[in-house]
Amino acid sequence: MSSKTRIVVLHMKEVIYTAIFLVLAILLIILLFTMFGTKKKTSDTSGADASQVLYVPGVYTSTIELNGQTFDVEVSVDENHINSIALNNLSETATAMYPLMEPTLESLASQIYTTQSTENISFGDDNKYTSQLLLQAIDAALDKAKAEETP
Predict the structure, then answer these.
(1) Tens of pLDDT along 3-13?
(2) What is the pTM of this model?
(3) Beta bridge partners of 87
(4) Using an 8 Å Cβ cutoff, are 121 and 132 in contact?
């Protein structure tokens, strides 16, 4: 019996390079499919959203004055959403004099983020006037942000 044993020598470096190039090729194919496959879908939905532009994107402010203390309510919007609502220029004195301002604004803001509207917002009797004051300021800022409708 004459069996010729063959020994195959694989260089580990060549095996690793081949595996890396296969993984990169697969990732490139997946990337190409996701880039060119979803582009048509996003262009279809953007045409529908373009007719329903509610706001001009930007940051709008409304000033509140209480007993000589002034501070701003800042509302940040994009075309269709209210993104953030914050108090600016609120001094430590105003925070001490009106301790319900920040918690009330946080409560109102969470409801506005959910509904994307200032209508039908609920608030308690203990901070009724603070809530009404802040809602008026938010509405004033949103009025500045509203997009003008073209007939």
Answers:
(1) 788 888 878 89
(2) 0.62
(3) 73
(4) no
